[in-house]
User: What shape does this take?
Amino acid sequence: MKEESKVGKKYCTKGWNWGNFVLDEKALSFNVENKPCFGIPFNSIANAGFSKDEVTIELHQDEGAKEPTKNDVVCELRFYIPNTAHKGDTEEDRKDTVDAPEKPQAELFFHEVMKKVNVDPLAGDAIVSFQDLPLITPRGKYSLDMYQQFLKFHGRTHNFKVLYKNISRVFALPKPDGQHIGFVIGLTTPIKQGQTFYPFIVLQFRKDASRRVRPNFSTEQIKEQFAEKLEGEIGGPLHDVLSRVFSAMVGIKIIVPTGFKSTKDAPAVFCSVKALDGHLYPLEKSLLFVNKPVVYIRLADIQFVEFARVGQSAAQTNRSFDLNVVVKQGETFQFVGVDRNEYGALVQYVQSKKIPIRNTEAPPTVNAIIDKQLEINDDDESNDEEYKGSAEEDEEEESYAGDEEEEDEDFESEDNSQKKSKKPKKSSGKKDE
Assistant: This one.
């Protein structure tokens, strides 16, 4: 009888795209003329959002697959819901709710779906929660819940989930104004909000903002799972508390600026990327521009840099210069409007990292010599059999979870920077090993 009921169940095959939603305990069903057209299990919904009269539902992908599937898969569904307020189906109901605040149907539907999606029996309760965190990218105020293997950001119109294994690097960046701290989370797989992809999540706090959180674990559970990395109660500056929680739960070191200082004794210089103002941080193994757009460049990927508008003729009319960074893949990143007083500090930083400098205003013979040297470097690297694995080795060297050379960039071990300065520099020779 049960098999007959499944086979005998009638589905709508008219192909209409207009119908009604029915939410049961396990799935969202789209019905046409009171007949099911298709359904979406709640455990397959990864994220949802709404805007005005539209609700977007994103579906989980097979993140554990060893190889990407060659078949077409559904990634996202969008539903148009008329922007009308729900005041009941009968005249009596409408009279009772005439003074009730109106809410768009899209928003009501979104909240009903999220109530079902957030009930995850395998996830359990959040271990640590932060409320009202100001995000710069994507912009808005979000609450943060951190679970055993992932974290969730909850906003008014959007929510998104990030697996810990999807977090590649985390930066804590003091702003040059001395009043704010930037917290940048780098992702291997960008999150999506509407039609925009975000490979970085950027938060910003006031330096004097404080917070106190208590993990939703017993003292024994904390010692068992996090050893001494997490305490029964964590308090202090918000950026410090968040850094300690991320370091313990995500298992990743927090990178902070060390070494470079501008003429204003700041860890970054002011400049612009595509007419958007921000700050460029020269770090130990990378260049990082924040806030929007976030630009991350590994020093190992840089072919050469150019300083434009630095000649004597330009000095009389311009108080700034441009920094062009050319990577080995051929792409050029342009940082415009750097204060001319920072020229010496940046040149010293680039030279200390042994990055070739090509001056756009130098005589042609000088640039020809640099081009020839770059060609020689490329030939030597192509003849080196071990160079094929250099990208992978660099990636391992960039892994902040276990790189001993990165201890001076660890949020909790800034005193080790002096020890690192005494270590002998690695040879940059081109001989086959």
Q: What stands out?
A: The radius of gyration is 27 Å. Residues 364-383 form the longest helix (20 residues).
